[in-house]
Structures are given as C-alpha cells and as structure tokens.
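User: Please predict the structure of the protein below. I'd like the answer in structure-token form so I can feed it into my own downstream comparison script.

Assistant: Understood. Taking the following sequence of 195 residues as input:
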Amino acid sequence: MITFEFLRVPKSFVVLCICVGIIAWVGFSGRWISPRVALPTMAELREEAEIRQAKVGEAAPDFTLTDLSGEAQSLSAYQGRPVILYFWASWCPYCTDEMPSLNDFRDAYQEEGLEVLAINILESAEHVRKAVEEMKLTYPVLLDESGRVTRSYLVRATPTYILIDSDGVYRDLVVGSPRKGVLEGKIAPLLPSNN
C-alpha cells in the first residue's frame, strides 16, 4: 500500500494506472502500430471502378488471363460451350482435394462441350505450376495474379464455382465444397442435351 498524507491508494491500482498510461501513450504516438497502408492512387481507383461486377442472370464479364504456359486465354473463346470457373488457391485444402476429381467431372461432360477453367488467385506461376503437376490436372489453369477477375466475380471464399451457360450468361454459383450430386444438378440445365 502506498500512503500519502491525505490519501491511501492500493499498489495494484497505481500499477494499473501506470499501465493504462503507457498503453495510451504508445497508442497515440503510434510506436506499436504497424506501418501505414498506402492509399490507392487515382489510377488504381479508376481501374477498380472500371471492373464490371458479375451478376447472376447477366452476361458473364469477359476476361483474359495467362495460363501456365504463358498463353493468353479469354473467357469469350469458350462462347457456345458451358463453362465452370473454379476459383482456388494452393493453400486451400478443400480446393486441392477437389481439383483432381474435376478432371473426371470434365471428362464426363466433355462430349457436351463442358470446360473447366481453374482460376488461381494471387499466386506466382512457379508455385501454381508445382501444385498443378502434383495434382495431374488436365483442364486449363489460369493465373489471376492481380485479383482483378476474382474481384469482378465477387469471389469471397475458396473454392468458388461459377457456372456459365453456352450463351455466356452467368447462371449459378457454388461457394465451398459441394455435396455429392450438387454440381451435377446445377450443370445439367446448362448442357445442350437438356436445352
């Protein structure tokens, strides 16, 4: 107990006041605050505003991304075929668990023209190439290194499946790992044999 002639204050209260004072001083001085995030430039803000947001029932926003061999691939090149855009990342275990089975899924509907485009989110080509080789994927893998396409399709979680019909219209989506039969049920109405 610390004693003053006119006041008796418990030692724990004094320690608490000192700690609060130090925390307040550090907070105001910014000494423990992480480096400030750079504000976007006007050009970056304009570019972000120009990104067309995908909406179910409307034409899917076209894009061009490079594949693992460095070739440019556009969504519009698949016009006339149903397409699944599969947004993924190598650090996502659900994604990497499902991707090999998408080989079989694509093969099962290949006669109907189905294509799967796996869009990797924000990872380097070297890293993605290694993961793809380990999984032995047979469908195109595209690199969204800037995240622009991911933002355009409003992807908030991985994996995300975007289903596009043969007319290029965004028809449906599945977020997360679908239960058995869900993906088949959602793709069936988009196939030419069912139209």
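That's the full token string. Residues 29-34 have pLDDT under 50 and may be disordered.
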